[in-house]
Amino acid sequence: xxxxxxxxxxxxxxxxxxxxxxxxxxxxxxxxxxxxxxxxxxxxxxxxxxxxxxxxxxxxxxxxxxxxxxxxxxxxxxxxxxxxxxxxxxxxxxxxxxxxxxxxxxxxxxxxxxxxxxxxxxxxxxxxxxxxxxxxxxxxxxxxxxxxxxxxxxxxxxxxxxxxxxxxxxxxxxxxxxxxxxxxxxxxxxxxxxxxxxxxxxxxxxxxxxxxxxxxxxxxxxxxxxxxxxxxxxxxxxxxxxxxxxxxxxxxxxxxxxxxxxxxxxxxxxxxxxxxxxxxxxxxxxxxxxxxxxxxxxxxxxxxxxxxxxxxxxxxxxxxxxxxxxxxxxxxxxxxxxxxxxxxxxxxxxxxxxxxxxxxxxxxxxxxxxxxxxxxxxxxxxxxxxxxxxxxxxxxxxxxxxxxxxxxxxxxxxxxxxxxxxxxxxxxxxxxxxxxxxxxxxxxxxxxxxxxxxxxxxxxxxxxxxxxxxxxxxxxxxxxxxxxxxxxxxxxxxxxxxxxxxxxxxxxxxxxxxxxxxxxxxxxxxxxxxxxx
Length: 533
Description:
- By secondary structure, this protein is of the alpha/beta class.
- It has helices at 13-22, 29-39, 54-65, 85-98, 115-124, 133-141, 158-163, 167-176, 192-201, 232-245, 258-270, 284-295, 329-336, 357-367, 380-386, 403-406, 456-459, 482-491, and strands at 44-47, 78-81, 106-109, 128-131, 152-155, 182-187, 206-209, 220-226, 251-254, 275-278, 301-304, 319-322, 346-352.
């Protein structure tokens, strides 16, 4: 049954008052269908594109069901699993916003935060536990938490869990929970692995699908800009042109790699843009500080990796720029879903190079229509040649770089490293009379190799043919030359045992009769007792 107000969804009076205080009046389609089923206690399988209000779709019914009851120490009443720290913190903010009229306790278990602070909250007892899978299993492995009292389980952004490799952790956590529980399962897409998880841990769920999986919102204007060059510095020039041509209030700029986020941030700041960065290598304090600054408007541009693509609800994001075309079409949906949320208008612009033609065709196949180009579109020849390129960034040389450097060689012109870190293993042997390379003068031979021969005038010793060759790493046994020693070994038959090596010490050397007491200091020696008379 289609509803138009929150009052018709079966929520309690306290929850409705909090919704009105937050300024919301009409539920979204996913909320209209999911909330009544969740309030009744039945399992829910929610499939909806990002930005449709899935978080409120499980927060509101959980608040209504947790109004009665009391939490016990280290035994949470409900559990919410999120793939990233940012998404977990955002869910905690939603509980604080909608639960102003409730006295429910909440704990957030994420990485980058002290274990002691989290343990103190768990010891007091929590009604709502929001956690990432890794940190939750850490606490469970230390024996600091019990999951036998969980009444409601929520798995948010399940397809993102699959991408990040959390499915084994999710299965382990589900086996630790009591079987008599309610499970709310939300995902934007339904790959086969996620469907297997649903079939295993959900009991007769109500399937709620408000949009076709992996589709974009109609409120987002999607534009694509073709860049004929694959060089990053030219892509950055195109990005600056797009930013200056658009009326940007604030924007998120996505890159495929964390290292490219740092490079792009320096470039934006160098050209006078108020920008910040968000990627997986940042500590939790820096992540939260950057997100707060972006939400409050102190940062206009946020260069980010895909860690910020899923589930983050940042209001009033006017633009999304894809500096790199995502490798998966599903990631494209989640990226541009940061704008055009809650019925607002948004714009997304994607830079496409010849290396991105294959990913572009996947996006067109997912959208079911050809993309709209901003500026000249790539020719048919560019599309045909680009589809044959290998996925990944081109490893060509920079303008003006030597040929050896373009292939990852060292700056000194060598072609590679040898076993000991030098490049001489790859050099051809020098001809007689040829001058030795300069860098070879400081290289000492390996253990077991002969010393390089020097002229008699330079070394002050006999020429090479007139003296035995000394092997590096061997000792001279009692003045015996190495030449004689090698001659004896050569004359020995292979099956004969090697003769014993001469002793390294003098034959007439005998150990001195020194006892242990002679090494004891005098002040530690006990005085001899007098003989009794």
